[in-house]
Amino acid sequence: MIRIKFYLFKEQARVFKRYYKNWRFALVDSSLHLLYLFSNPYRICRKFLERRGAEVVYAYGETPLTTLEGIVSAFGIGADDRWLELGSGRGRGCFWLSQFIGCQVRGVEWIPTFVSRAAWIVRGLFLNRVEFKNICMQEADFSWPTVVFLCGTCMSDEEIESIPMELLPLGAKLISISEPLNKPCFTLVKTLEVSYPWGKTEAYLQIKNDLAAKSSTPLQSMNLWNTAKPFFRQSDGRPAR
Fold it and tell me: Whole-model pTM?
């Protein structure tokens, strides 16, 4: 527990130093912290799952923003993409993507509190390129995204298999954490070692493409800390150096 708290403290220090130079994101992220100042998102998730009678109630987690930056840089996510996050939580990663990468972002989350608060920030700060849907993962529009992000570490194999990923358009990217999706219509093309508060794991990039097996490059394995310089945008729209 102490190790996790120390990790989160260091991560927030990195976030402040690295991203708060963008005043728009600083305003969004500060607003998000204020909304959860007296209501812990982990507790909100636990109570929601307890009411539903779930067997596993300690299932909340967030991808650290510095980890997310490494993922989008290594896997080539850009401003022309449409990012769908399955299980977006309070939406912090979605807000970061919309501000720094500039792509269209849609967060899908079934806990109403998370969605209503994220939507309040979107409306109150007049944000574009980001939206949130209070639906189950299985109900998402899979014809829309060019990229799907799924951190299914706390999900069962049956829950993951029930998500209709096969509805994604050909060429769409699927990024999953801890293990790849075991469906024949996806080809694994790259892995990346990533860091979370609970330890290190792998991020997997798969492509929905019937021809991917013939045209893709050999599987690449990367380490987050050895990737090229990130390419997120500054507050004036220029790529970071």
Answer: 0.85
Domain with 112 in it: 2-226
The neighbour count for residue 216, using CB atoms within 10 Å, is 15
- Domain assignment present for 40: yes
In a domain, 241, yes or no: no
Average pLDDT by stretches of 10, the chain with 241 residues: 86 95 96 94 92 84 95 97 97 97 97 97 96 96 97 85 94 95 92 94 92 45 44 44 38
- Nearest-CA neighbor of 72 among 34, 99, 44? 99
Number of separate domains in the chain:
1
CATH number at residue 175: 3.40.50.150
Calpha distance 77→113 (Å, rounded): 29
Residue 178 and residue 202 in contact, taking contact as beta carbons nearer than 8 Å: yes
Which residues, in sequence order, are CB contacts of 152 under 8 Å at separation 6+? 87, 159, 160, 176, 177, 178, 179
**What CA dihedral angle connects 194, 68, 203 and 195, to 10 degrees?**
20
